[in-house]
Amino acid sequence: MLEWMQKHKKYLVITVWISAFALVFASLVEWGGGGFTAGSNEHIAKVGNQYISRQEYDRLYNILYNQLFQNQEIFSNENERIPQIEQQVYMWLVQTKMSESLADDIGVSVTPNELAHRIITNPNFFDSQNQFNKDIYDRFIVSTGRTTESFEEQFSKNILEEKIQNFPIFQLSTLEIDSLLSANKIRDNLLIRVINKDTLLKNKTIELQENEIKSFWEKNKEKYYKPANYKIAYIALNTDDIEVDDNSLQKYYNENIQHYSENALQTERDLILEDYKKSYTKITSSYMRNMSKFLNSKDKYFGDVIVTLDRDSLMKIKDVLETDKEMPSDFITINYMNLSDDDLMLYPNLLAQIEQEDKSFSPVFEEKSKTWIIPYVLDRSPRSRLSYEDAKPQARDAVWKQKEYEEFRKIAQSSFVNANINSFQDIGFISIADMNMQSFQNESYSILKNLGLEDFEIRSLFSQIISNNQVSGVAFLDSKAVFYSIKNQELPTYGELLNISNGEDDQIAEAKIRDMRNALFEYTTNKYKIIDYRRQN
C-alpha cells in the first residue's frame, strides 16, 4: 500500500487523520528543554508570542473529562489526570492560539456586530417563541461559572477560528477523485500476532538507581507540586430540594413581571421556576455576607465534600423571601470545607471563582450536581513545588513506567526478528477505508475483536501499518505488541473506481478539506514557535 502511495505521491495527498495530527505535532513542537521561563506556573505553553494559561488548560480538560464520563463511574483515581485527555486539550489550545496568531497577522477579526449577531441567533438562547431571551443567555453564562466578558471573549475567539478554518474549498478534480479512491480501495492481506506486555516482561526485573530518579525529578520539577488549598465557609442548596407551590410561583411572577413576556407563566413556566429557585441565593448570599465577620470566632469542622441545606433551612429561606422578614443570626447552617485544585473534577466552577480574590459571597452554580454554592474564603495557600523527598514516590513510579515501556519495546522488537510467521493469524484484507469503523464490521473485524483488541486499538494498529513503509514490523498498542506482515496486496478493479457512491464522494471531499487544513496547520506550525512548558525531558 505504502509503495503504491509513494510511487504516485506527486498526484496523491491523503491524510490518515486518526493519528497524523498527533505524529506531525509531536515532531514539530519544541519541548521545554532544561528549565522553565518566568511565569510558567501560570502558563503551560507558548505559541508564537501568545501564552496558554494553566486556567484555560484546566477548564477545557475538565469540560472534556465531564463530557466523556458524565454518566459513568470514574474508573481511576479522580486526582490522577488522564494523559490522553490532557494531550488532546493541549493540541486544541495550541491550534486555537495558532489560528489567533494567523488571524492577527493577516488582519482577520471579529467585529462587535458579528459577535452580537451570532449570540442573538443562537438557538440555545431562544425562548418558547423562538426569540432571543437575555435572561436565558445570562443564566447560561452563570451556569458556566464565567463572567459575561470572559464568555463573550471566548465566543469571539471561536468565531475567529471558524473564519480561519472555513477558507475557500475548490471543487474536486477527476485526478484527485481517481487518486484518492484508488488509494482508499487498495487492500492488504494482513497476518498478525498479538502479544501482551506482561507476557513479554514476565521474566524481566526493572531496576532503578537513586540518581536516575533524582535526575528525572530535576528535569520534571514542575510536574510535581502541592496544589493550591483553600479553607472556605459556604452555604449550598440543591435546586431539586426546593419545594415550589403554585401560589409562591404566581407571587414571584407578579413581582417580576417586567422581566417576562405576556402569559409567560403559561408559556415559560420552567424559566420562571428556575429564576424563582435562583432567588434563594440572594437571601443566602446576603446572609453569608452579614455573618462573615463572626466566622473566625466560631468553632469549625472542615469537611471534604459540599453539604447542602436541609428542608427546614430551605423553608426558612422561603419564609424570608416571601415575607421580607429579618434574618436572625444562625437561622441557617454555614458549613466549612477544605478545597484544593485536586477537586477540579467535582467543583470546577467553584474553584474558578474562588481563585479570584474579590469573588466571595457571589453565588456559583455547579451544573453536574445542580447545586448553588455561596462561598467565603477564610484562608488560601498558593500552589507550590514539592521537594525531591516529597515528590520521590511519584517520580520513581514515572521512571519505572518509562523504563518498563522501553524494555517492552526492546524485547518486542527482538522477539519479532526471531518470530515464526507461521504463528501469525491471517485476518483477511484491510484497507484505508476500514479505518472508518462504522463500515468495518466484516470477518477481519470479528477476528481482531476475538484477539482482544478494542476499536481504538484497531484504529491505531491500522494507522501504524499504513504509516509505515515496511511490509512487516511491530505496532505498539500501549499494553500490547502486534507483530504483522503483509502477505499480498489487491488493487481496486476498474469497475470499483467507476462506481463511486455518494458516501465515497463525500469522504474524498472531506479528505481534501482535511488536507487543506493540515497545510494551514503546517504553515502556522512552521511560522509560530511552540514551547511546551509541561515537558522537561
From TrEMBL:
Main localization of the protein described in the UniProt heading: membrane
GO cellular component: a single term: plasma membrane
Gene3D superfamilies: Porin chaperone SurA, peptide-binding domain
Protein's cellular compartments: Cell membrane
Keyword entries, A-Z: Cell membrane, Chaperone, Membrane, Transmembrane, Transmembrane helix
Chaperone among keywords: yes
Transmembrane segments: 12-33
PANTHER family associated with the record: PEPTIDYL-PROLYL CIS-TRANS ISOMERASE D (PTHR47529), PERIPLASMIC CHAPERONE PPID (PTHR47529:SF1)
Protein name: PpiC domain-containing protein
Organism of derivation: Helicobacter didelphidarum
Source taxonomy: Bacteria, Pseudomonadati, Campylobacterota, Epsilonproteobacteria, Campylobacterales
